[in-house]
């Protein structure tokens, strides 16, 4: 009987060592990924007030042609809209029934805001936090004063919409982890 107990203890010890080794490996790998994640999504500023309430979340469609919500709706304390990062106004004009302003940031990504009034002119360079437009009070996009903010990466048909909250540090990028004991997905 004592022989069985010793074997059982050895198995438990080996199992504990393997679990500890796995946890250390997992955390080391996560720390190694942290700089890549933070450089992939630079820290921008809120276009409305700090820590604005998100009235409607980003909802990326499964396919580009499907419906979704390609941005976020942010509550606003006042009508001022500010550029979340430095860049240049590349579009300011009507899209259907509302005025939209688009800023191309230094990293090539584009932020678009709607509905706006009194946008800056195309070609205007802007700094992070600089006023770029006001919310158009004539268009009721939400049940309260709000702005729709979308972020795109790429151009034309290859453009991808990204969750703007990633750039504020509010949301983290999705990370898929393996499943099963053999780590097969």
Write up what this structure looks like.
With 185 residues, this protein is an alpha+beta fold. Helix content is 21%, strand content 28%. Strands 1, 2, 4, 5, 6, 8, 10 and 11 form an eight-stranded antiparallel sheet that branches. It has a three-stranded antiparallel sheet with strand order 3-9-7, with no helix packed on it. The radius of gyration is 24 Å and the shape is globular. About 10% of the residues have low confidence.
Number of helices: 1
H and E order: HEEEEEEEEEEE
* Large-scale geometry: globular
Number of strands: 11
Whole-angstrom Rg: 24 Å
How far the N terminus sits from the C terminus, by CA atoms, comes to: 41 Å
Q: What is the mean pLDDT? A: 80
The chain-level structural class is alpha+beta
Beta-strand fraction estimate: 25-35%
* Main sheet overview: 8 strands, antiparallel
Low-confidence stretches: 20-38
- Share of helix, binned: 10-25%
């Amino acid at each position: 009987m004592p022989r069985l107990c010793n074997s059982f203890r050895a198995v438990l010890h080996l199992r504990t060592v393997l679990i500890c080794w796995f946890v250390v490996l997992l955390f080391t790998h996560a720390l190694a990924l942290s700089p890549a994640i933070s450089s992939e999504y630079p820290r921008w500023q809120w276009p409305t007030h700090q820590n604005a309430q998100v009235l409607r979340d980003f909802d990326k469609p499964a396919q580009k042609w499907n419906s979704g919500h390609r941005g976020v709706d942010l509550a606003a304390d006042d009508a001022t809209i500010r550029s979340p990062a430095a860049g240049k106004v590349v579009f300011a004009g009507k899209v259907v029934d509302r005025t939209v302003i688009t800023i191309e940031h230094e990293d090539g990504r584009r932020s678009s805001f709607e509905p706006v009034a009194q946008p800056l002119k195309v070609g205007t360079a802007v700094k992070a936090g600089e006023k770029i437009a006001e919310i158009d009070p004539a268009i009721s996009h939400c049940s309260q004063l709000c702005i729709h903010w979308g972020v795109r990466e790429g151009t034309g048909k290859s453009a991808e919409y990204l969750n703007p909250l990633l750039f504020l540090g509010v949301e983290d990028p999705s990370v898929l982890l393996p499943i099963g004991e053999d780590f097969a997905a």
